[in-house]
Amino acid sequence: MTAAQFTNVTVNAQATISYDGRCSSHTIMFEDGRHKTLGVILPCDNLVEHYHFSTNTSERIEITSGECEVKINGEEEFSYYRAGQSFVVEGNSGFNLRTEQIVQYICHLEG
């Protein structure tokens, strides 16, 4: 279940912005040292067929609104995800994401 809000966190006010502003996220830090990012991805179009994101640590990406297709490095085909679903990407890897609508997500940094 998606948490609608987080309490007792510190928010990094400086956003991470990529793809000319089409993707942005903010990092939140919990008192116990855990980190998560909350982000928004705008739809792909004729200028951006898909987005590619690299991972340094294992990540579980939870889709909180919208729908998208994801192809994790090493996989042959894209898989479909929608709000309420998540996927895991190992550390030192990456994934492609394509979408026709705005996607919001929580990235749980697990490594």
Gist of the model:
With 111 residues, the protein is mainly beta.
Give a description of the structure.
With 111 residues, this protein is mostly beta strands. The chain has a single domain (10-109), classed as Jelly Rolls. It is 0% helix and 54% strand. The protein has strands at 9-11, 16-18, 23-30, 35-41, 51-55, 59-65, 67-72, 79-82, 86-89, 93-98, 103-109. The strands form 2 sheets. Strands 1, 2, 3, 4, 6, 9 and 11 form a 7-stranded antiparallel sheet that branches. It is globular and about 40 Å long. Catalyzes the phosphorolysis of diverse nucleosides, yielding D-ribose 1-phosphate and the respective free bases. Can use uridine, adenosine, guanosine, cytidine, thymidine, inosine and xanthosine as substrates. Also catalyzes the reverse reactions. It is an enzyme of class 2 (transferase). One of its GO terms (molecular function) is guanosine phosphorylase activity. Keywords: Glycosyltransferase, Transferase.
Structural class: mainly beta
The overall pLDDT, averaged over residues, is 94
What's the N-to-C terminus distance?
21 Å
Helix content: under 10%
What is the radius of gyration? 14 Å
Number of strands: 11
- CATH-defined fold name: Jelly Rolls
Would you state the CATH class?
Mainly Beta
Helix and strand string, N-terminal first?
EEEEEEEEEEE
Report the principal-axis shape.
Answer: globular
Please give the domain count.
Answer: 1
Number of helices: 0
